[in-house]
Design goal:
Elements: H1 4-9, E1 19-21, H2 29-33, E2 40-46, H3 61-72, H4 74-77, E3 79-84, H5 94-103, H6 105-110, E4 114-115, H7 135-140, H8 142-145, E5 151-155, E6 161-167, E7 170-176, H9 183-195, E8 201-205, E9 209-211, E10 217-219, H10 221-231, E11 237-242, E12 249-254, E13 260-265, E14 279-285, E15 290-296, H11 298-301, H12 308-313, E16 315-316, E17 323-326, H13 329-332, H14 347-350, E18 355-359, E19 367-368, E20 378-382, E21 389-392, E22 404-408, E23 417-421, E24 436-443, E25 455-463, E26 477-483, E27 488-493, E28 502-508, E29 514-521, E30 526-530, E31 533-534, E32 553-555, E33 557-560, E34 563-567, E35 569-578
Parallel strand pairs: 2-3, 3-4, 7-8, 8-11, 11-13
Antiparallel strand pairs: 1-5, 2-14, 5-6, 6-7, 9-10, 12-13, 14-15, 15-16, 15-17, 18-35, 19-20, 20-23, 21-22, 22-35, 23-32, 24-29, 24-35, 25-26, 25-32, 26-27, 27-28, 29-30, 30-31, 33-34
């Protein structure tokens, strides 16, 4: 006796089909409304709806609710595309397909870009995509999609289409492939990929993987063929979506380029009301390097009085149906669409009006030149040997130079190396009464929390007491940008108008990643920024200028009572000090 899984895994005969491309149509309303330059966008996925269109036993209302929800909330989610995964109907009947086609008019009427593909219940499952005319093709053939700006083209038989959308400032591809693709279609997909060599691609089809009860997915027989002949050797394909089987699940496979391909199966036809037209929303967030996935039924959500089964299935929040996929998109796409490195910038571009000192760590030596022309050069001071400082090529991607200095400092006892201005450097006596900007690029090692509390980044030698201050602790330095025991940024200074210390606090910083910090005083108040974002804990009490004891500035050291207590531990890139408040757009990382 044939088991359900054996039946579902069955493969039809394979044929060969030629390929043609169609001309995209005019821009749709939903496409125009999408924020194509935002790094957050969503794709809506609709799996098997076959039981909703089953002769005289169906109900189109759940799918109608799903389509309406997707469009109604497209602005909220920045939804750029919707994809049906096949088995639109149960019996491949013309009347069923026509009824389903009427529901999809919601997308057509309101301009939501979408794709539909044929599952085994939509056509003669014994055939491949060279089968010729069918009621499915009459309703969901290329003619339906050609008016959409996202439509890219179709195979000559019409059962496979590709679509293009723009999101996060780049072009993306979606392939909607038949239940059984021919060798010609495989070649066609490869041709489309070659024609769009820098576009990441999502492959949707009906049968590619199935899952066990724990949600662990395995390639089906047809899925293995697609992997061997198409997916594995084409690095642009990073995500596959299929229905057909239940329960849902996922896996991650490694392609020939050594990169991850995320394989997801989603299907709820076995659940209450044929799955209640449950949808998945794939929320892409390129800033967070994540795809967040949620699963729910808009039809059940809109019901004011749900029955017992509807209350259970209104949304699925288990780990198989609500999850996040971590993806470093830039790294994943680097093999076919590398992000060009920002070019270096000459020092004179960074010496803006008011620049007092500008230090770059791209040229090894015992002295670091002040590129501002102000003569505030740095020299090296070793606490425990020359090996505690090394020049590196590491850098923030938006840093003007391609270098940094790594300081292997610590405390108890003080160790490492640091850099300092000369005793007679002009910057030592400046009081910055009209404002200032202090900037630096930093990266912290993974173990930076281990015995490195209060390590200094940029500081000014001299105690508050040396500057005539008697409040708080006069042994504290007159100015210091440091990191706390939890790696929170702190800017602590003795202003000219106060007898105590003024302090700005940041949040705890992540290790093993570069960031830019800027402290900006406008002549009255001081703000701290990280990567151009203003932080929270900035005092509103006026803080005018910087007290000075006329002593040197230090890079990579923290002091107390004029004694260096420890050296900095981590990487420091370009450092700049300006005697006015710079707007965010003029920061070094801008």
């Amino acid at each position: 006796m044939t088991s359900r899984r054996e039946l579902l895994l069955g493969v039809g005969a394979l044929g060969v089909g030629a390929a043609t491309l169609a001309v995209p149509g005019a821009a749709s309303a939903a496409t125009a409304a999408a924020k194509t330059d935002e790094n957050r966008f969503s794709i809506a996925v609709i799996p098997d709806t076959q039981y909703l269109f089953d002769s005289d036993r169906g109900d189109p209302a759940p799918l109608a609710a799903s389509c309406k929800y997707i469009v109604d909330h497209s602005a909220e989610h920045n939804t750029v595309f919707a994809a049906h995964l096949g088995d639109v109907v149960e019996n491949a009947a013309a009347a069923e397909l026509a009824a389903a086609g009427k529901v999809f008019r919601e997308f057509d009427r309101r301009g939501m870009p979408y794709s539909v593909l044929a599952g085994n219940h939509d056509i003669d499952s014994r055939t491949d995509d060279t089968r010729g005319p069918s009621p499915y093709l009459d309703v969901f053939g290329p003619a339906r999609f050609q008016k959409m700006a996202t439509y890219g083209g179709a195979t000559s038989g019409g059962y496979n289409t590709y679509h293009r959308f723009t999101a996060a400032g780049r072009d993306w591809l979606v392939f909607a492939l038949d239940w059984r693709v021919s060798a010609g279609t495989v070649a066609w997909v490869k041709g489309v990929l070659r024609a769009h060599p820098s576009a990441p691609a999502i492959l949707t089809t009906h049968d590619l993987a199935y899952a066990d009860d724990a949600g662990a997915a395995t390639l089906s027989e047809h899925g293995q063929r697609l992997w061997d002949e198409l997916i594995r050797d084409n690095d642009q394909i990073f995500l596959t979506l299929n229905g057909h089987y239940w329960p849902p699940g996922r896996t991650t496979l490694r392609n020939a380029a050594g990169n991850d391909v995320h394989v997801h199966i989603t299907n709820y036809q076995d659940r209450y009301y044929g799955g209640s037209a449950m949808i998945r929303l794939y929320h892409f967030d390129l800033d967070r390097h994540t795809i967040d996935v949620e699963t729910f039924s808009p039809w059940l959500r809109e019901q004011k009085a749900r029955d017992a089964l509807g209350r259970v299935d209104v949304e699925l929040t288990d780990a198989v149906n609500r999850f996040s996929v971590p993806i470093d998109f830039a790294a994943r796409f680097a093999g076919f669409a590398p992000v060009p490195a920002r070019p270096t910038r000459p020092a004179n571009q960074l010496v803006v009006p008011g620049t007092v000192a500008y230090w770059r760590f791209d040229t090894p030596g015992e002295r670091v030149e002040d590129r501002s022309g102000g003569g505030n050069h740095l020299t090296r001071v070793s606490l425990d040997g020359p090996e505690s400082l090394r020049w590196t090529a590491e850098h923030h991607p938006d840093q003007p130079t391609r270098g940094s200095v790594f300081l292997a400092g610590g405390k108890r006892p003080a160790r490492g190396s640091y850099l300092r201005t000369a005793e007679d450097a002009p910057i030592n006596t400046k009081t910055f009464t009209k404002g200032y900007t202090v900037e630096a690029f930093l990266k912290l090692p993974a173990d930076a929390r281990d015995n490195h509390a209060w390590m200094g980044v940029v500081s000014r030698l001299g105690r508050g007491g040396d500057a005539g201050r008697k409040g708080d602790d006069p042994a504290e330095p007159v100015a210091a940008l440091a990191l706390s025991d939890g790696l929170a940024l702190q800017w602590a200074v003795w202003p000219l108008n106060r007898d105590g210390i003024a302090t700005n606090w940041g949040h705890e910083m992540r290790t093993e990643r570069w960031f830019h910090v800027a402290v900006v005083n406008n002549g009255r108040t001081t703000m701290m920024y990280v990567d151009g974002a203003k932080l929270l804990r900035n005092p509103s009490t006026p803080s005018i200028g910087l007290a000075t004891a006329g002593r040197p500035w230090l890079i990579g050291a923290s002091t107390y009572d004029n004694v260096v207590e420890q050296g900095f531990y981590g990487w420091i890139g370009d450092v700049r000090i300006v005697d006015r408040a710079l707007p965010v757009g003029e920061f070094m990382n801008a």
